[in-house]
Structures are given as structure tokens and as C-alpha cells.
Amino acid sequence: MIKFANNEYFILLAILLVFIVIFWLYRSWVKNAKNRFGDSKLIEKLMPEFSSSKPVLKFVIVLMATAFIIIGIVDPQIGSKLEKVKREGIDLYLVLDVSNSMLAEDIKPNRLERSKLAISTLVDKLQGDRVGIIIFAGNAYKQLPLTTDYSAAKLFLSAVDTKIVPTQGTAIGEAIEMATISFGETEHNKAIIVITDGENHEDDALEAAKTANELGISVYTIGMGLPEGAPIPMYNQYGTQTGFKKDKKNTTVITKLNEDMLRQIAAAGGGAYARANNASSGLKRIFDDINEIDKKEIETRQFTDYEDRFQIFLGIAILMLIIELLIADRKTRWTKKFDFFGKK
Asked: What are the C-alpha distances in Å from 116 to residues 29, 87, 102, 103, 130?
């Protein structure tokens, strides 16, 4: 099992492309300068010790050394011990609304970003629980199956935005049904947290929550938004706001938090409702309720020991840089034995 300690530094590999472009431009400039100076064959005879291939070889070595240094910074780690790990926890699905109405900015910076922040905070507090993510708009999609890898959960969460689903709408019921099915037939206690503005236009969310509760799954809801509502920003392909969403009568659409709907869903699901605002994400109350759920023992297999391997890559990089320093820019002695430009 291989994992990387510092995934964010993979972006440094873009430096290699910059080096390649700069080297290519430099080589083109040298070639053009030589052509302006005189005949290329005559210049080669005047500079018998000049090697045109050595600079390329040295550049390739430096480029490879840089790549190994970057890999060393990323720090590959190899799992060395696989064993059974027992922990107590519950199975938890986080169901997140990604419809366009979640871009409303009545909660700063907007409803969706505040929701993602709330989920990230929740994940940081989990201990032994398995967590999964389902997103929905016009349809529901499983973004992440149940896992105890909280780093993966936060990574998947960071990629969520309103463009990730092709169909707009707010199918809360379908999302709850998907979460209910996705738990499978385990004996672990289960819970669903629905984070949305509550504008359900697609299905019977109350019936879905009731069905989940009958199967022993508690359904909680967090309302993202304010009762007075806010307009829905519209953006172009470059991310620049172009105005606000309007209806057929050219009137600006105001999206409002539907607290009554969310309270009813939570009641039908045997859970609780909390409202987010600019001062609070509404998460604390829900988290406290979830902590009161009896946690059962979960047995998983996972790598418990990881060994760093950055030393190998840094060592190779240092060796390659030493080799590059030992390679002369001119032709070596053995190449002088060949008279490439002598008369036949």
C-alpha cells in the first residue's frame, strides 16, 4: 500500500515543463546566433572540442534530478504492516445539496462553501466512525462510499461544486433513499445528515425519511440559508458573476430557506433539525445528538505502519547532480581520436 504524505506538492512537477520550455528557447537562440555568425560547418571546424550533445545530456540529468527531488518532497510512504483494527463507531452519510440555490450569499461566503466547511469540521471530530458523501441536485450521486479514511473524505469534499451534477433541482428524497440503500445490511448504527436550503421540488422527502427511520436510520437536517433569502448569483465560464437568476417575467429569483420542510424531514426521520447562520453552522447540536447514538464495534483491515521512502529519491537526485557536475561541456579525450572533419 502506497500513500503520499504531501500530495499538495505534486503541483511542483509543473516546474519541469517550465524548464523544458526555457531550455528549448535557449537552444533555439544559440542556433540562430551561430547561423548569423557564419557557416555552421566552418564554426564546427573552428570549435573542434565543442559538443552539441553534452548540454542536452546535462539538461536531461538535471531535469530528472529535479523530478526525483519533487517526489522526495511529496514523500512516498509504503504500508509495511496490514492488520485488523477494531474501533467503535457508527456509519454516517453526509448528504449535501449542490443545486444552484446553494450559491446564494445570505450565509457567507455562500451556502455551499459554508456547508463544505461544516462537513470538514465534522469530519475532523469523528473518531472511529465510517463516513460517506452523497451529493444531489436534480438527481443524487454517491461521491464517496463509507470509509474511515477521513483524509480521502476531505479530498473528495474539496472537489464538490454546483457544476459537478448535470441536472439542476433539489431531489432530497432521492438522496435520502440512496444513502439508505448505500448503508447495506450491516448491524452498525446509522445516521444521515442532510445539508440543504430545503427547497425540495422533486420528490417526497418525508416518505424517504420515514422509510429510513423504519430501518433504524436516523435522519438529521441542517438548514443552510436565512428565512428572508437571497438572490442566486449567475457566473460565466470564467467564474465572473454576470448577474442574478431571473424567472420568465425577468424578475430576480429569491431563494429562501424552507425550515418547515427540513423540520418535517427530521421529525419523520427520527432526528433533529438545526439552522445555520453567519455565526454558526448549526453543526454542534447535530454532532452532540450523533454522539449519543450507541456506537458498535467496527472491524476493518488497514495498514498501521507506514515507512518513509523520500530518502531513496533524494539520494538518486543527489547522485544525478554529482554526475552532471562531472560531465564536461567539451568533448572528452576519447572522442578526439575521431577526425570527423578531416579530409577523406
From this structure: 50, 26, 11, 12, 18
* Cβ within 8 Å of residue 85, ≥6 positions away: 299, 300, 301, 302, 304
Domain co-membership, 136 together with 153: yes
Strands of the sheet containing 76-89, edge to edge, are 2-4, 76-89, 296-308
Q: What is the pLDDT of residue 212?
A: 95
- Looking at the whole model, is its pTM more than 0.70? no
Are 229 and 95 found together in one domain? yes
| Lowest-confidence region among 14-18, 157-161, 325-329 | 325-329
Tell me phi and psi for residue 75, to 5 degrees: 65, 80
Strand partners, 274: 222
| Alpha-carbon span 222 to 80, nearest angstrom | 41
Mean pLDDT of 170-181: 92
Give the Cα-Cα-Cα angle 154, 155, 156 (nearest 5 degrees). 90
Candidates 64, 61, 24, 58; CA nearest to 328 is 58
- The DSSP letter of residue 344 is -
What does residue 274 show for φ and ψ, rounded to 5 degrees?
A: -140, 145
Grid coordinates given for 151: 483524509
10 Å CB burial of residue 53 (0-12, 13-18, 19+) is exposed
CB-CB contact of 79 with 5 (8 Å): no
In a domain, residue 185? The reply is yes
179 and 323 fall within a common domain = no
Q: Provide the 3-class DSSP secondary structure of residue 231.
A: strand
* Domain containing residue 51: 2-75+309-336
